[in-house]
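Inverse folding, one chain.
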């Protein structure tokens, strides 16, 4: 039985929304999913989350009282990178039959749960869950947390998803205007409200107190948070750190995150550690690995860096840093300019430009008052625009529009 807070008295006529996600890893899109389902109006909506594997997300959802299913998908498909998505493997005769059976299993779950809305949270879930929903004749939302663009995905994959986005879902939510534009949808989708952008929100309650204001101590800490993978740009962060270290040798640099999803990312971590040694930064770079206490770690930083080398669909960690009153140095691509106001809440730099990133960091290190002013402006902006309750309210408005026909 799901747990409900004492003040919640769910109606037996609640609307069942089934969420599909291909992974149960505790990573960006799944954290956003967890935040969303735990902040829905539980008197009106009954969320059920179906994952294609077991893991930390399922454990956290169970602990929060959210109903879950694990429908295991063959790992050959599920671990395929999103820039490949197992397309060649899936088109072989035997895998086609296996995927058909899997889709039928998802369809059975929808019928057993009496799903009234399907909400797909990842690219693989968009396809498999979306087809299952179509077969079950249930309205389907694709919540696209990626940027379907040729500089983010291989061109053929991007074209395939743009085509499927017109054919499978009844509604589309993207996490930024940049992600929405990348889909290249017909104007009718936008004019009718079938496709819209809703920014991610963060749990503002995690940032209600400020125990460490930026540059309030002699020890300056500059941090980067995110999955260790080349496009997240930790190697650019290290190059910039080396330039900052030349002028501010006491500054510490923190790398929070671990490789996920594929072996190539583990090789990237080893490369980063070698780069740290090559740049003679062993004594000033701290490695934290995968952590669940990210808000607490951000709280102890003075500057948060976002270093993605291709346009980020949104940038969840950026709003977390801003909520904690940290000035942000971020790469200027994708949905990031929708979050960071240049010169007011942080500094934007070109993607892949370590020198520009270092210059921005040096500017903040040399001007603590400016850094603190930017941090407080970012906190104000996040509390006004990027709270999870705002996000959940807008998503529920989409549900209501579907239910009202």
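Residues assigned per position:
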């Amino acid at each position: 039985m799901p747990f409900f807070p004492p003040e919640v008295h769910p109606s037996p006529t609640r609307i069942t929304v089934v969420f599909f996600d291909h992974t149960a890893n505790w990573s960006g899109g799944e954290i956003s999913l967890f935040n969303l389902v735990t902040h829905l109006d539980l008197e009106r909506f009954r969320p059920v989350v179906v994952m294609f594997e077991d893991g930390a997300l399922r454990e956290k959802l169970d602990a929060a009282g959210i109903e879950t299913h694990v429908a295991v998908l063959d790992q050959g498909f599920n671990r395929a990178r999103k820039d490949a998505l197992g397309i060649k493997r899936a088109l072989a005769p035997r895998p086609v039959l296996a995927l058909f059976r899997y889709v039928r299993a998802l369809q059975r779950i929808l019928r057993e749960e009496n799903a009234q809305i399907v909400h797909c949270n990842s690219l693989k879930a968009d396809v498999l869950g979306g087809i299952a929903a179509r077969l079950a004749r249930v309205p389907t939302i694709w919540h696209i947390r990626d940027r379907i663009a040729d500089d983010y995905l291989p061109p053929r994959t991007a074209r395939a998803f743009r085509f499927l986005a017109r054919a499978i879902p009844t509604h589309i939510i993207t996490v930024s205007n940049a992600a929405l534009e990348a889909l290249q949808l017909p104007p009718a989708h936008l004019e009718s409200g079938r496709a819209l952008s809703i920014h991610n929100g963060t749990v503002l309650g995690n940032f209600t107190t400020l125990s460490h204001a930026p540059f309030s101590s002699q020890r300056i800490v500059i941090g980067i948070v995110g999955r260790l993978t080349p496009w997240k740009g930790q190697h650019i962060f290290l190059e910039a750190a080396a330039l900052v270290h030349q002028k501010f040798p006491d500054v510490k640099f923190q790398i929070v995150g671990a490789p996920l999803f594929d072996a190539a990312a583990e090789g990237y971590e080893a490369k980063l550690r070698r780069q740290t040694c090559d740049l003679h930064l062993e004594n000033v770079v701290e490695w934290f690995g995968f952590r669940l206490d990210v808000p607490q770690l951000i709280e102890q930083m003075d500057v948060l860096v976002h270093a993605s080398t291709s346009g980020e669909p949104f940038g969840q960690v950026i709003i977390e840093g801003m909520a904690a009153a940290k000035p942000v140095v971020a790469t200027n691509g994708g949905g990031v300019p929708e979050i960071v106001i240049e010169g007011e809440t942080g500094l934007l730099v070109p993607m892949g430009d370590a020198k520009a990133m270092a210059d921005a960091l040096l500017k903040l290190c040399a001007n603590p008052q400016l850094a603190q002013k930017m941090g407080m402006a970012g906190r104000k902006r996040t509390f006004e625009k990027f709270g999870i309750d705002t996000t959940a309210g807008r998503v529920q408005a989409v549900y209501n529009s579907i239910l009202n026909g």
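The chain has 16 helices and 13 strands. The longest strand covers residues 15-21.
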